[in-house]
Amino acid sequence: MREWSRLTEFAVQTALGAGRVLRGRHGEALGLEWKLVNNFKTEVDDVSDRFIRAAIEREFPDHGILSEEDDPKAARSEYTWVVDPLDGTIPYTRGISDHFSVCIALCRGRTPVVGVIHCPLRDGGSGETYIAEERMGACANGKWISVSLDTDIHHAIVGLDPGKAPGRRRLPLDIESKLVGDDGVLCVSQHICASVSLALVASGKMNAYAATRLEPWDMAAAVVICRGAGAKVTDLAGKEWELGDESILVANPMLHGKLMEMLSRRPPYTCGEYLTVIRDARSPGDIGDDDLAHRRACPHCAAFSESIDIDREKQDLEIERRK
């Protein structure tokens, strides 16, 4: 094994320490605080966060801190630590799986350069720790890891998360509709913990991961790890991921390109779309070529359109009669 830098060794030891905090309270649904209608935290989030913050402020007082559970600390240098003291709060509190983690990343400017994801109960309960440093590869429990090299999109298991942002949680449904089909990926999977899903991509157990809206602490550590394992990591527009980007797409470079092409396609035109257009149309110009093509192809929508046309003709005749 190569020797990690002092920064990476610090991140590893701090994540392991926070992991010990989490292990002691696993499965307890105590001290819940609802932040949004579909997002909560526990008192353990805060305990873990204070542990990590104290360690950073003691060792690197000039560095900034961006954390899920507290206000940001401005940096007096180019470095900022991006911290999720407990990712996967639902599996953690409900005890439904071992998919929860401590995530610690270090960013130089907007570029993540160190990433650690510590999963305290994975690997049969002994814990699983993913580590990466810029241009030094990535490892899990002391073994070098690589993304899956399978480039067949039909073999792909793709992780997909809705995030927690109000008003945007339905966006992944649009992605799923493009991915899942007769000519699509093998399956789409959700593990209720973005960091563990991304770690599974880095280690080749899953093929890809996509999300439309996550927080920086959900992704930053995993970005370094996935890149170190050979993945291409961008936002959903194809731009190389940087701190501040909300969306993410991760896969080996060739599969990434195929997924980008698939996600750029217009979703299949549905009867629901057509019926909305016809219902709201006030003139022939309101009906486009896609609408007319669907009407010709779908006998049910064609019959509905004829009934709408007849009703409108009757309404026009009644208006003329009353004049």
UniProtKB/TrEMBL annotation:
Q: Which cofactor does it need?
A: Mg(2+)
Question: What are the binding positions for Mg(2+) in this chain?
Answer: 68, 84, 86-87, 218
Keywords, sorted A to Z:
Hydrolase, Magnesium, Metal-binding
* Any one biological process term the GO annotation gives: phosphatidylinositol phosphate biosynthetic process
Domain of life per record: Bacteria
Q: Origin organism of this chain? A: Candidatus Sungbacteria bacterium RIFCSPLOWO2_01_FULL_59_16
User: Molecular function (GO) terms listed?
Assistant: inositol monophosphate 1-phosphatase activity; metal ion binding
Protein name per UniProt: Inositol monophosphatase
Q: Which residues form the signal peptide?
A: none
Gene3D superfamilies cross-referenced by the UniProt entry: 3.40.190.80, Fructose-1,6-Bisphosphatase, subunit A, domain 1
The keyword Metal-binding is annotated on this UniProt entry: yes
InterPro entries with a match to the protein in the record = Inositol_monoP_metal-BS (IPR020583), Inositol_monophosphatase-like (IPR000760), Inositol_monophosphatase_CS (IPR020550)
